[in-house]
Amino acid sequence: MKNSLVVLLAILLTYTNLGHAHSPVGFVIPKDGSVIKDAPEKIEIVFTAPAKLIKLELSRVTSNGKSTLIGGLLGSEVLEAIDLEKSHLMKEAKRHVINTPMLDLGLYKTTWRALSEDGHAIKGEFAFEISAEGTDPSGAVAEFLEGEGEIKRVRGSKITIKHGALGDLMPAMTMEYEIPETVTAIDFKRGDSVVFKINKDLDIVSIKTK
Ligand SMILES: [Cu+2]
Q1: How far is ligand 1, taken at its centre, from the CA of residue 20, in Å?
Q2: pLDDT one-digit tens code per residue, 133-186
Q3: What does the pLDDT read at residue 25?
Q4: Which residues does 61 contact at the CB level (< 8 Å), separation at least 6?
Q5: Fewer Cβ within 10 Å of end Cβ, the chain: N or C?
Q6: Tell me, which fold does domain 2-130 have in CATH?
Q7: How far, in Å, from the CA of 151 to the mean position of ligand 1?
Q8: 144-209: what CATH class?
Q9: How far is Cα 76 from Cα 83, in angstroms, rounded to an integer?
Q10: Which one has a higher pLDDT value, 1 or 4?
Q11: Rounded distance from Cα 132 to ligand 1 centre (Å)
């Protein structure tokens, strides 16, 4: 347990996002850095705008016997690839759900590459641990994510919101959302404080000014 936590920490220090402000990722499940008790049945990567996954690797991180914090930082961990179906690749979507085979206890690292709508290559990694002592949820805890924010821009049917953390999944960030048909864009303007709710496809299901 202690050893794997050290490795997990090392991985997190190495791979954690450098900042969330312009992150192409809304959230991942299991959450980066989470220690969960039950093996997840699927992995989810949810982008803030449609993107095509072009590569996804899930690996179990095993100790090479001399793994230390420094060893981890130098990348001396041994990776054992987990076979994943390939059907999720090359589909343009915000939300990507990938079924996982039965996963044993252990530390896992997910590495992905994707192409954004405008053709930019984006990539990222996240890690989680399945442990008998885990207490984090292995899936999403709620169907909707709620939060508060400030409107930065309204453009056609799109609205850019600088928001705080949404639920326990999405960190604070500024991102663009589609305004649902049931809401009139006219009702919103730059600078408005709003409370809103999104589903896991990152569609706004309700929004109102505070
Ligand atoms: Cu967001």
Answers
A1: 9
A2: 999 888 878 889 999 999 999 988 899 999 999 988 899 999 999 888 888 777
A3: 92
A4: 7, 11, 77, 78, 79, 80, 106, 107, 108, 109, 127
A5: C
A6: Immunoglobulin-like (2.60.40)
A7: 12
A8: mainly beta
A9: 22
A10: 4
A11: 32
